[in-house]
């Protein structure tokens, strides 16, 4: 298994905090952050005051991802240019709310702009109080003494009490929300496409999420020690092929896992997810697999318990704009890379053709 050390993740001190007993942190070597933010809230766990944390990523990464600039994301052969889809940034995590979340108010744009009056609402979903196996212990000090924080993001921010701070900025909510881990929570996203044999349009396997009823990639959380290609195959089986609780690895899951080992890496990093908070956020690895007619026909789509529905869905400029979190942006990038690789062109309505 290839254990990737992602980027050079020197830690960065967070902006000075207002918490009365918290020592004022020195500015980190490359943070450039000013201002202050209040994270001392009633009912919050007591955060550890820790020295800088060396951050190492312990999730498996089958291949290095290509580095793609924002400009390249918009370029494609054939002169069909899609508008930039929402999702690369940090807007949904600032304005949309996860299921049962409190309102986010109007959080400052950046940590630099967070002044002493910034009072995020503390929220942790009741399920976290039951100490589920997938979550950290509620006591942050204990949680961070048991494991190192890991992240794909190049910037690691910490509050004065050692609490991880969202690398993209404030969200209006402190605590873990519905996410189990302090800091990054890791998912993997399988983008599986085909060209419909009759309509000639590009389609993807999409689910409708149960929580917010939005169309999404059938991804899921990476289990401890699991290879990303394993998560991709497992989630696809569980969420879209009705293969839940099969009590072992099925032949189809093994076949999919092998296929995902040759899948195209599309994106790795922060997800603009409505469940993100100031102290917990989603990061993902998205991979793309384009199936031929025969491979696609062998998949008998059936929804799993996490999804309200599953189907092949046309990939159009419009459908990408309506997807959950950053998913539209990931799928768009998968399509742009696939166009380059295949020499084909995908129109805004999903039609696949040869360049003019
Ligand atoms: C989903 C993934 C998604 C991640 C971040 C997980 O719950 O299963 O598909 O990328 O959240 O939004």
What report would you give on this structure?
The strands form five sheets. Strands 8, 9, 10, 11, 12, 13 and 14 form a seven-stranded mixed β-sheet that branches. The chain has helices spanning 70-74, 92-95, 140-146, 228-240, 251-261, 293-297, 317-321, 327-342; strands at residues 11-13, 16-17, 36-37, 121-124, 156-158, 164-165, 173-177, 183-195, 202-209, 215-216, 220-221, 264-270, 280-290, 307-314, 345-346, 352-353. The chain is globular, with a radius of gyration of 21 Å. The chain is an alpha/beta fold and 356 residues long. Mean pLDDT is 76; it is low at 1-87. The chain has a single domain, classed as Alpha-Beta Complex (Nucleoside Triphosphate Pyrophosphohydrolase). The site of beta-D-glucopyranose (BGC) has 11 residues, from strand 8 and strand 13.
């Amino acid at each position: 298994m290839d254990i990737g050390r992602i980027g050079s993740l020197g830690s960065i001190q967070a902006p000075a905090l207002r918490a009365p007993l918290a020592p004022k942190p020195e500015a980190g070597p490359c943070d450039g952050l000013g201002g202050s933010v209040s994270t001392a809230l009633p009912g919050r766990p007591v955060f550890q005051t820790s020295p800088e944390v060396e951050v190492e990523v312990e999730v498996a990464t089958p291949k290095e991802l290509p580095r793609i600039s924002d400009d390249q994301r918009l370029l494609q052969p054939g002169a069909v240019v899609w508008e930039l889809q929402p999702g690369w940034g940090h807007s949904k995590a600032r304005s949309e709310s996860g299921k049962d979340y409190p309102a986010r108010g109007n959080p400052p744009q950046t940590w630099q702009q967070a002044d002493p009056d910034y009072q995020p609402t503390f929220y942790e979903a009741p399920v976290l109080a039951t100490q589920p196996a997938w979550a950290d212990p509620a006591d942050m000090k204990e949680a961070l003494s048991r494991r190192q924080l890991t992240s794909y993001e190049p910037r690691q921010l910490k509050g004065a009490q050692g609490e991880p701070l969202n690398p993209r900025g404030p969200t209006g909510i402190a605590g873990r929300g519905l996410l189990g881990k302090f800091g990054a929570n890791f998912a993997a996203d399988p983008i599986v496409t085909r060209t419909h044999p009759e309509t000639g349009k590009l389609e993807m396997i999409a689910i409708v999420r149960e929580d917010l009823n939005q169309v999404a990639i059938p991804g899921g959380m990476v289990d401890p020690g699991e290879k990303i290609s394993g998560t991709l195959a497992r989630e696809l089986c569980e969420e879209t092929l009705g293969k839940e609780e099969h009590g072992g690895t099925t032949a189809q899951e093994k076949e999919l896992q092998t296929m995902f080992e040759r899948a195209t890496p599309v994106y790795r990093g922060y997800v603009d997810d409505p469940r993100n908070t100031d102290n917990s956020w989603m990061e993902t690895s998205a991979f793309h697999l384009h199936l031929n007619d025969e491979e696609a026909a062998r998949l008998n789509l059936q929804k799993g318990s996490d999804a309200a529905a599953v189907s092949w869905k046309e990939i159009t400029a419009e459908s990408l704009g309506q997807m959950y979190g950053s998913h539209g942006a990931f799928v768009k990038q998968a399509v742009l890379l696939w166009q380059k690789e295949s020499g084909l062109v995908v129109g805004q309505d999903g039609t696949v053709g040869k360049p003019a």
